[in-house]
Amino acid sequence: MILRVNPNRMELLRLRRRLALARRGHKLLQDKLEEMMRRFMLMLKEVDSAKEEFRVKTAETLRALTYCRITSSPEQFLSAAGKVEVALRLEVSRVRIMNVSVPALRMEGLSVSRHYPLLGISGEFDLAVDSSKDYIQTVLKLAGIFKSLEILSDEIERTRRRVNALEYMLIPSLQDTIRYITQKLNEIERGNLTRLMRVKDIVRAH
């Protein structure tokens, strides 16, 4: 597609500079896209290990709680669960991946207060409470990776659209327009040359 411009030498120089800039921008965005895709694939591998860790911790906690539920009365179990107080201090910071800001979750501290009586409740309940820190840590890790993947995938899609716009729209349009202006200027130059030759012939005839 040819851009609407005046076919003159100033416009030709401007378009050539713009084409060079578009090509540099395309190269930079292409490199950024490839690096983001590489980081994305590495994070997908982290998701697999984090999901497996989460699955194991969840199974351990549920197994302990299920045993407590079976060996205790519903009233004792619910009463004990209601008397566990948890205080979580969470730090949310930002890190950059290829100039893309993603969240980083870190547990600064976790305190668990137990106000339930030891009699009437299984010891497995204590084990479930003790493992809560590791369980919450796996949840935070998995949540941080999923959120980072979501943000990174959006940025990858935006960058891919920009790369495609440059590669298939802007750069071809600039190239076509430069060819069009070059042809027009060559035609004008040939026309001027033809007129000069006719003037010479007329002058020589007189």
Explain this structure to me?
The protein is an alpha+beta fold and 206 residues long. It has a single domain (15-197), classed as Helix Hairpins. It contains four helices and two strands. It has helices at 9-71, 74-82, 123-130, 132-205, and strands at 84-97, 100-114. Strands 1-2 form a two-stranded antiparallel ribbon. The longest helix is centred in the C-terminal third of the chain and has 74 residues, at 132-205. 7% of the residues are buried. The model has no long low-confidence stretch (mean pLDDT 83).
Question: Total domains, how many?
Answer: 1
Helix content: over 70%
What is the succession of H and E elements?
A: HHEEHH
**Can you tell me the CATH architecture?**
Orthogonal Bundle
Shape: rod-shaped
From the N-terminal CA to the C-terminal CA, the straight-line distance is: 49 Å
Can you count the beta strands?
Answer: 2
The value of Rg in angstroms is 35 Å
CATH class: Mainly Alpha
| Helix-and-strand structural type | alpha+beta
Briefly say what this structure is:
Helix content is 75%, strand content 14%. The chain has helices at 9-71, 74-82, 123-130, 132-205; strands at 84-97, 100-114.
Could you give the topology of this structure?
Elements: H1 9-71, H2 74-82, E1 84-97, E2 100-114, H3 123-130, H4 132-205
Antiparallel strand pairs: 1-2
